[in-house]
Every structure is written in structure tokens, then in C-alpha cells.
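Human:
Class, as today's exercise, you are to examine the entry below, and be ready to discuss the fold:
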Amino acid sequence: VYGNESVSGNGGGIYHAFGNFNYDSTVIAGNTAGGGLGPDLYHNNGSVSDTNCLIGNNKDYSAIIAGTPNASNSYVGTSAAPIDAKLDAIADNGGPVWTCAIQPGSPAIDHGLNTLGVAFDARGIKFLRQIGTAPDIGAFEFGAGAPAATLILVW
């Protein structure tokens, strides 16, 4: 959840009104809540947990503890020291869904989880889920470009 805006409400990235919510290997960063609380995440009631996430700014929801990483291996910024996710705007990066490409130097690189054991990132079969020591946080795997074309000559 990146680059969203709530013009007059709370939770520029995610507004969570009630109940329990668990985030795993999720990016919630670079969002704004112009008229309210929680630029990246606003939580009103219940519990929230984070594991291997990147949350740019925990302003107005300090139950997700800041740290690089924190105790749940998430990278969480504050209003005084927000974390730049270093993502490109959403675009067609190949595959059936649009994604935000990860820029070099992003804290998302090699800090995610793959609890379901999927082989490919959100873009599908041509894009491996893990290139480095661990999968990246979010839907896009840095460096997972389409395989090089092979030229076959037939005589």
C-alpha cells in the first residue's frame, strides 16, 4: 500500500476500524492522511501485528513499534524519522497486475517472508519470488526480471 491519500479522513494507506489484523511481508508507506490521523496506518479498535513489514510512519499508531528492524523484524519509521520505502509509482512492470518496482537501496530488499512458499512474485511465472538471501517485502522482487530470450537457429 504505497502512495495513497485520504483527503479528509484517517488512514492514508489503511484505515482499520475494528477487529484483529496481521500484516506479513507488507509495505505500508508513502501515504498521506490530509484530514486526519495515521498517514500510513490508522487503527481504531482491536489488535494489529506486523512481521517482516515496511511501515514508513507509525504516527498515531505506536503499538507497532518503530525500529530498523524492530522485534518482529519489521522496518517501522516514525513521524520524526519516517522510512523512505524507495519504491517507484505503480506501473505495468510485467505480469497480470501492476506493481510498485523496488529501487536500489530500498529497505524492502531481502527483508520479507514467504510463508506460503510461492515460487513467483505478484507478476507471475516469469518473476521469481526470491533472488537474494530472503524475499523482498511486498509484491515485487527486486532483480526478478523476465528471463533473457534464447535464440535457437535451425539449419
Q: What stands out?
A: The chain has a mean pLDDT of 88. The radius of gyration is 17 Å. The chain has no helices and eleven strands.
